[in-house]
Amino acid sequence: MEKYTVKDIARASGGFSMLAVDQREAMRLMFAAAGMPHADKDITEFKVNAAKILSPYASAVLVDNQFCYKQIVEQQAISPKSSMIVAADQFIPGNGIPVDNVCIDKAINPFEARKNGAKALKLLVLWRQDEDAEQRKAMVKEFNEICHSAGLVSIIEPVVRPPRIGDKFDREQVIIDAAKELGDSGADLYKGEMPLFGKGDSKALLDAAKRLNDQINMPWVILSSGVEANLFCRAVRIAMQAGASGFLAGRAVWSSVIGLPDTNLMLQDISVPRLQHLGDIVDELMASR
Fold first, then answer.
1. What is the pTM of this model?
2. Among all residues, which ones are annotated catalytic?
């Protein structure tokens, strides 16, 4: 059995220009806030259309089982120019938030996902400084084994959260701590948060991204959650100058069209050029290495 590698979800340049449409209840909240219909079918329709319209310009598309994996496979929504990544994380709500905890989604069969065209699986790891590191590492180890048993690429996404108890939380240090713990965990690709939310002085941002890079012993990309869409291109550029190899992002690409009329047209007119520009940045920075 052929084993997929990170090259199978990368651009010809070797960089990653990947689209995420795996947001779940968070996307429903975005639709509701914009005054849009937000039943399951509305979320699914948006995700499938976004995959159809944007995947020709993405090296890979990340989809979720709750709303769109089955439909995207059935409708062959992802362009042959792109690859499919399936989210293999189950979000557990609690304490008033949509994602309070995460476990491996055992409903995702890696061999079936591969048969359906997937080349990678992704796991969100919520990282709290007062929770058990050994449990996190064991979950990532199990996830890596699941991926590699089917010859799939393993992508981990450590996202930091405030501690369960107390209010002492230095986000920037905790991002580094998470990378220190999981940056050499045997996964194939690390999807990390942008330091400083991508804000502020370029040199400070580059220094922070270099500190993150120093902890990660695998290719890594940034996500766009928490980064203003207008700052994301700069964030990608600076992260790549620090050692990252691209991005895996959703909100920075498509969130600005939510609530606008003619959503599919807006995806074409607004999101496609944005994704193309991001891909150009990735290729430019990879060529300079």
1. 0.97
2. 191
